[in-house]
């Protein structure tokens, strides 16, 4: 696994892979970042949240493109901390624990995010919808936001509060959620 764009392009990252984790492939990651670029995401001003960060690769891709505000969270943060160190960063804002505990902490700080990467274990689509609803109900999304969800389920219903763009890349199904025009 490596960083595919920006100033750290080509830098190798450590990762853990077992039955419950699987790194996003370079092909899928490249497609996601092409979608974000085509939607005009300004990485230098983006505020990013990665609640199931694993190795941290999606947040690190943003940092490589100039993002300075990234919040990483996972049950085990050793690998993301090591990857941040490899790139010459302190741990920054790395939270350790359940994603809803992290959301509670961030909500209390009045944190708002313009870009969220949701990549829980593939079999846990309820958690995807739960985190999306938590962010929306607690007003933790910036005015212009994009939520990128990676799963293997092609038929998740996020409700009517979002415009939903769905793309399939082999086993991976990518949902890009943006603000609905009728909300």
Largest sheet: 7 strands, mixed
Shape field: globular
Helix and strand sequence = HEHEHEHEHEEE
N- and C-termini, Cα separation: 39 Å
User: How many discrete domains?
Assistant: 1
Helix content: 25-40%
Low-confidence residue ranges = none
CATH architectural name: 3-Layer(aba) Sandwich
Overall average residue pLDDT: 90
Please name the fourth-level CATH homologous superfamily: Vaccinia Virus protein VP39
The number of strands is 7
Number of helices: 5
- How is the largest sheet built, in terms of strand order? 3-2-1-4-5-7-6
Strand proportion, as a percent range, falls in: 25-35%
Return Rg in Å: 15 Å
CATH topology heading: Rossmann fold
Characterization of the model:
The structure is a single chain. The protein has helices at residues 26-38, 57-64, 78-86, 99-108, 125-137; strands at 47-50, 69-74, 93-96, 113-118, 141-151, 162-169, 172-179. The protein is an alpha/beta fold and 183 residues long. It has a single domain (26-179), classed as Rossmann fold (3-Layer(aba) Sandwich). A seven-stranded mixed β-sheet has the order 3-2-1-4-5-7-6, sandwiched between helices. Strand 2 (69-74), helix 3 (78-86) and strand 3 (93-96) form a beta-alpha-beta unit. The model has no long low-confidence stretch (mean pLDDT 90).
